[in-house]
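Q: I have 148 residues here and want to know how they pack in 3D. Can you give me a structure?
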Amino acid sequence: MKLNYFTKRLSTVGRWMAATVLCLWAMVFVWSGGFFSNNAAMASGAVNSIAAADMGDAVQEKASKDAGRAKNFIRDTEEKVKETAKTNAAKVDRASEDGSVAEGKAKKDAATIEKRAEEDSARTQKAVDNTKNAVERTVDSIKGAFSK
């Protein structure tokens, strides 16, 4: 299915909004740890930076773990799409044993679907990596701010 202009733009906006919400969530999550701690009861302000660093490491670890899961899901989906395209082409091949036009079109369509699945999978995995890297950069900058 070919996406029209509006759908492509909507998809792009949706990805940017998801990445923005994820980054903002990470910032709020790390930032709130500094405000809810009881600074008056602590002997040193260094404890806050250690806690922020630990929390930041936890956020980065979670982001990496979730990105790995998402990429595995994307790869599995790609393989299922390819398998379905091959199965459908084989069914058409069995139905028309004389090498008809439908058989050639089915094989061509299967190749196109497999190619698109690979492209979409690569593009989606790159977006997952970019989002994970943005979260990690954000957490690093917040940890840097708390350590000063």
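Q: Anything worth noting?
A: The helical segments are 5-35, 46-95, 101-147. DSSP finds three helices and no strands in the chain.
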